[in-house]
Amino acid sequence: MRLANFVTARSGGLRTALRELGEGYTAAGHDTVLIVPGDSYTDEVSAQGRVITLPGPVVPFTGGYRVLLRKRPVRRLLEELAPDRLEVSDRFTLRWTGRWARERAIPSVMVSHESLAGLLGAIGMSRLADPLNARSAASYDTVLCTTAWAGREFARLGAENLVRVPLGVDLEVFHPRRRDPDLRLRYASPDTVLLVHCGRLSSEKRPDRSIEALRALRAEGVPAVLVVAGDGPLRDRLERDAGDLPVRFERFIPDRHHVAALLATADVVLAPGPIETFGLAALEALASGSPVVVDRTSALPEVIGDAGVATDGADLASGVRELLARPEAARRAAARARAERYGWPAAVEGFLTVHGATVGLRALGRSI
């Protein structure tokens, strides 16, 4: 059984990871149930297994994220479904499920999808991160981190139950062949540099830095334009801040193939978030053949390697200039080659190995 908070119809990385892992578990022959918050109760069966939505309140100022706040309906489902294993993508209102599982001798895994130290630090409450992380590590049998960077906030507390398994990318959907000259002409002329920022427009993602990078490049005479693909609570402010800069705001794009075409058509993709623990959007850009500029303080340098550039988050423009100085064919080939290290079948196998549930793994290459 899998539980997750902070999932909406428009949330990106976490929803993608849950879907891809669920489809992989199902393809490997496992019965899976995912419980997430929503505005009403639903119970559906899909390619990722059974998905149950329980009513959960919206967290203020997050642009629509919901949480499973009430224990009773979650506990009722846990008791009714009697899972063999528990996987929890949350360390807030669902931490109690680790103790529930331990009392019943059910193996449990908490997946760390965010930097708690980073999130709390952004609101001046960083002192709470260590005690909360210590409780999370003690509550579950295993803490699964997707990068070494993500694991450091647990490792420095002495947690000994850490494992690292990278996430993946759909190497077929996100592919350089989706580069679209006609799509490019919607945003830029042939001699213009097309920048893309793809992600949620919220404070922890620092989308303002992408607009400032465009401003700096234009001031230096670089004929760049920026497409911002995504939605969130900062959208209106960002549109005001962009002023008369050539910025095109695209709201949430539900069609993955459209997103893939946009990423493949970009010259450079910007991923300025300073507390990203993995960065699926950046990896999707690499798979599409587009290099990425990232914040060097995040986990993204670990993921992108030499297929992009890591800079001070306030100076993304320098990273763009560095990438544009490389031959286009070489930088695009390097991006794709780096992404090919991160297929979803390998991620699914890694997660199932952590669960000790490897039955059916040989089918993954054919089924996912």
Automatic annotation (TrEMBL):
Gene3D superfamilies attached to this UniProt entry: Glycogen Phosphorylase B
Q: Which UniProt keywords apply?
A: Glycosyltransferase, Transferase
Q: Give all residue intervals belonging to the Glycosyltransferase subfamily 4-like N-terminal domain.
A: 12-168
One example of a Gene Ontology biological process annotation: carbohydrate derivative biosynthetic process
Q: What are the protein's GO molecular function terms?
A: glycosyltransferase activity
UniProt KW Cell inner membrane keyword: no
Task: Provide an example Pfam family for this protein.
Answer: Glyco_trans_4_4
The residues covered by the Glycosyl transferase family domain are: 192-338
| Name of the protein | GDP-mannose-dependent alpha-(1-6)-phosphatidylinositol dimannoside mannosyltransferase
